[in-house]
């Protein structure tokens, strides 16, 4: 799921001819850190995803459900599965953070 989000971010950014440097500057992070977001190496928070969508001028659903063919209808079951997958990912990240805090 997270790599899908990163791939979507990369494709949208490239379609809009926006550089990694520009996005990284807007986020106040290094290009390397931004590259890790696109590759899925660095976890994506909802807050950061929301900010990226603002920078790229797209909706979160455009990133979560990116499709090469904009005319293709999103299958409701696919939509639901992706939402649950992202929720699971976020819950796992919360557990990891809680463990770090308690150690």
What do you see in this structure?
The chain has one domain (2-102): lambda repressor-like DNA-binding domains (434 Repressor (Amino-terminal Domain), Orthogonal Bundle). The relative contact order is 0.15. The model has no long low-confidence stretch (mean pLDDT 84). The protein is mainly α and 103 residues long. It has six helices and no strands.
- Computed over alpha carbons, the radius of gyration is 14 Å
Mean pLDDT: 84
* Named CATH architecture: Orthogonal Bundle
**Large-scale geometry:** flat
Main beta sheet strand tally, sense and closure? none
> What structural class is derived from the secondary structure elements?
mainly alpha
Total strand segments: 0
At the third CATH level, what is the topology name?
434 Repressor (Amino-terminal Domain)
Brief overview, please?
With 103 residues, this protein is mainly alpha-helical.
Task: Record keyword descriptors for this entry.
mainly alpha, 434 Repressor (Amino-terminal Domain), 6 helices, 103 residues, 0% strand
Secondary-structure topology with pairs:
Elements: H1 2-15, H2 20-27, H3 31-39, H4 46-56, H5 60-64, H6 76-102
Helix pairs in contact: 2-3
